[in-house]
């Protein structure tokens, strides 16, 4: 067995498929190509698809959108929590703390019927953006902006964050970004959620496990690190020297490399590159140009290809999203994938409990405390 469970099949799923065919990566959600979903669907449609397994009919989508919109507002206790957390708390720590608190307020926390689990999943999908936007406004000393029922999931988040209705381009960019982040088979955070679900822990506990796991810089935390790199490089002219130096020092270039896309482009990175380029054309080209120069150098010096986190950084920067909210945006997309996996695990459950190969010392003679 390779370290890090590489190539190990740990469960069966019908939620997403990653495959390499004719040198090209395929990523499908419930059988639909990510490229089609990103171009033609909305985040709400994709969340429905992930949860229920089928694309919604028109009336089903309408009802689903209304239900999500009605679930957006936070209980006063959660707003109180966001007000009392220190302004230096990382927004991902806030998100997992607020998720846990939501669990403590749910009198039916232990009920795992299908209907109740779907209700809790929809609640979390609807409330994640509000937690993120409210905390950001509170920590920056501004008034919170209640959710607007008439706006889409993406538009409403930008509205609650910035306090003004977003442009159609900004709304569509975030919508597409959330679709691209919604699901990715057995990545580390989803696996963490499924492990928790396999003990029959409540859905909040599973989502807290996933949220904590996503935050690490080798996973979703990479997007914030990419932005740190873009700021450090500061100009396309300095990209090559930066990449060369990092690679010669044996360091990682954030936003590059992937466990399952080896030698092929992450299909989401291609779409995000297109999105980043389109946003740059309408706003500032600075971050996109630096990103392009870094990508060129990373390929030249180590044949490295960008992953989903790389171009997300310049997309978010051009949407006016602060760097330390980048992982939260990822979580706002991924919550629909996480909850779909938790439901799948509950419905086909067997405890996940692998073995470890013991490589330490054996059969040692106990030495009494007085003789050590
Ligand atoms: C949403 C997501 O989670 S996407 C991933 C986000 N994370 C990042 O962008 C962080 C940077 N990337 C990485 O650290 C890695 O590529 C990971 C963690 C994503 C995947 O790691 P693994 O599958 O364990 O790859 P592994 O460590 O085996 O790397 C294989 C080779 O590629 C190199 N490599 C992989 N990624 C990078 C990178 N970003 N920068 C430099 N070299 C890299 C490794 O050094 C290694 O080279 P070697 O064979 O010469 O030693
Ligand atoms: O699949 C992975 O290992 C990481 C990833 O790209 C994701 O979670 O979107």
TrEMBL record:
This enzyme catalyses: oxaloacetate + acetyl-CoA + H2O = citrate + CoA + H(+)
One of the GO biological process terms: tricarboxylic acid cycle
Recorded metabolic or biological pathway in which this protein acts: Carbohydrate metabolism; tricarboxylic acid cycle
UniProt entry keywords in alphabetical sequence: Transferase, Tricarboxylic acid cycle
GO cellular component terms given for this protein: cytosol
Q: What is its EC number?
A: 2.3.3.16
Q: Which Gene3D superfamilies match?
A: Citrate Synthase, domain 1, Cytochrome P450-Terp, domain 2
Molecular function, one GO term: citrate synthase activity
On whether DNA-binding is a keyword of this UniProt record, the answer is no
- Per the Swiss-Prot or TrEMBL record, the active site comprises 258, 309
Q: What is the uppermost EC class here?
A: transferase
Q: Which domain of life is it from?
A: Archaea
Cited InterPro entries: 2-MeCitrate/Citrate_synth_II, Citrate_synth-like_lrg_a-sub, Citrate_synth-like_sm_a-sub, Citrate_synthase, Citrate_synthase_bac-typ, Citrate_synthase_sf
The record's family statement is:
Belongs to the citrate synthase family.
PANTHER family in the record: CITRATE SYNTHASE, CITRATE SYNTHASE, PEROXISOMAL
Q: What is this protein called?
A: Citrate synthase
Which organism is this entry from?
A: Archaeoglobus fulgidus
What taxonomic classification does the UniProt entry list for its organism?
Archaea, Methanobacteriati, Methanobacteriota, Archaeoglobi, Archaeoglobales
């Amino acid at each position: 067995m390779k370290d890090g469970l590489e190539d190990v099949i740990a469960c069966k799923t019908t939620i997403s498929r990653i495959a390499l065919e004719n040198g090209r990566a395929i990523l499908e959600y419930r059988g639909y190509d990510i490229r089609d979903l990103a171009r033609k669907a909305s985040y709400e449609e994709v969340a429905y698809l992930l949860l229920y397994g089928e694309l919604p009919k028109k009336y089903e989508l309408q009802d689903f959108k209304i239900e999500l919109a009605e679930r957006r507002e936070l209980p006063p206790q959660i707003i109180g929590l966001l007000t009392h957390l220190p302004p230096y708390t990382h927004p991902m720590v806030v998100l997992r703390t607020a998720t846990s608190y939501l669990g403590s307020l749910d009198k039916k926390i232990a009920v795992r019927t299908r209907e109740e689990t779907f209700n809790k999943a929809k609640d979390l999908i609807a409330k994640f953006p509000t937690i993120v936007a409210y905390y950001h406004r509170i920590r920056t000393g501004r008034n919170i902006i209640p959710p607007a029922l008439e706006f889409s999931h993406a538009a409403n988040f930008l509205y609650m964050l910035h306090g003004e209705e977003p442009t159609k381009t900004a709304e569509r960019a975030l919508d597409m970004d959330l679709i691209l982040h919604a699901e990715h088979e057995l990545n580390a955070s989803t696996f963490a959620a499924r492990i928790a679900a396999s003990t029959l822990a409540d859905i909040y506990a599973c989502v807290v496990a996933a949220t904590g796991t996503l935050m690490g810089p080798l996973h979703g935390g990479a997007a914030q690190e990419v932005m740190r790199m873009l700021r450090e490089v500061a100009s396309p002219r300095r990209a090559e020297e930066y990449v060369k130096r990092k690679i010669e020092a044996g360091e990682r270039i954030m936003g590059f490399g992937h466990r399952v896309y080896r030698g092929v482009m992450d299909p989401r990175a291609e779409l995000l590159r297109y999105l980043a380029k389109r946003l740059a054309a309408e706003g500032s080209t600075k971050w996109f140009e630096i990103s392009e120069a870094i990508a060129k150098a990373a390929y030249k010096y180590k044949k490295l290809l960008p992953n989903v986190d790389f171009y997300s950084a310049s997309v978010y920067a051009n949407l006016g999203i602060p760097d330390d909210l980048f992982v939260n945006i990822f979580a706002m997309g991924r919550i629909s994938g996480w909850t779909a996996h938790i439901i799948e695990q509950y419905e086909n459950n067997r405890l996940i409990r692998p073995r470890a190969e013991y490589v330490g010392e054996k059969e040692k003679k106990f030495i009494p405390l007085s003789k050590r």
